[in-house]
Amino acid sequence: MPGARRETTGPPTPVSTLAPGRPPSLDGRVAATVHRCLADYLADRRRAAEAADPVFAAEVVDRLERFTLDGGKRMRPMFAWWGWRAAGGPDRGDAAEAALRAASALELIQACALIHDDVMDGSALRRGRPAVHVAFADEHRDRGWHGAPDRYGHSLAVLAGDLALVWADDMLDAAGLGAAARARARAPWWAMRMEMMAGQFLDVRASAAADASECTALRVDRLKTAAYSVERPLHFGAALAGGDDRLVRALRGYGADVGTAFQLRDDLLGVFGDPAVTGKPVGDDLREGKRTLLLAVGVRRAREQGDAAAGELLRSAVGDPGLSGGGAEAVRAALDRLGARAEVEERLHGLLRQGLRRIDAAPMPAEARAALRDLALRATERDS
Question: What's the predicted TM-score (pTM) here?
């Protein structure tokens, strides 16, 4: 989907031009620079939206802006940046700054994915705060408006997510990339967005069909998380820098492994995590009906061990909106007793080791390899 060029101002002032003399390396400033690029770009888009309709800007654009800027680890731009650096992209200068502006657009795709995911899952919280659709519904109730507050909230959240996806394309087009770099990056950009949608479809379908197979759970993890969170951002960054096929294969293999491990950690946190740290209530993933590998392994091990009661407990808990805290605790105990939690942890660490071996054998600068090792560990050993 080609995007429109920005109409009101030029690109944000690069961070590295603010210091005299040789600009500093961007390697240690990725998250801060991405935040600045997003803030500048969204402020520019808000001004354009105000010209179209001030209420739209105040209620939809402002909420999208806050959602995008006030949370997130900037993981996807980080991986894109180190894909760029692994392929020999410079760590400073005009080309580096354009690459990082382009990578920042990934955060708008992430905003779209999270906002829409919360609507589809019926999640009440995101990052410890009301999800976007819940916040819009609450505003409707507070104002005493006509109609159903929840439908209003869902409708506006869909619009906000769509707007984020449109602006991701626009931000990429406005990044200041050269024609050759833009052409090289087109294939991973297109693939990433399509794979994200396919993964979301499979996730929704698996819940509706009560598909508890391990194969389906891993396919969802591969497309919904690994591809768009790690693999394709790396591919995107390497393509911007003109990385060769051998390097791209290594980065994509690493991305598929580490991205899947990242989702397995997310699944474990969804059941065993501390709500004060994760920002989600205990058992929310169970109530939403998420068909994760953790639960699929639990059902399989219950069958193998002849534990019919545990198998029935797991099957009945998934998708039960009234699951109590005690019910969630019983599920956790069963998953531990069956060895499902330990098996998923083992698989997670196996994927991590395999991913790290891929980049150990790949031709890239030492600093890129070290950064990718660190990112992999941070993605898979987190508690939130």
Answer: 0.90
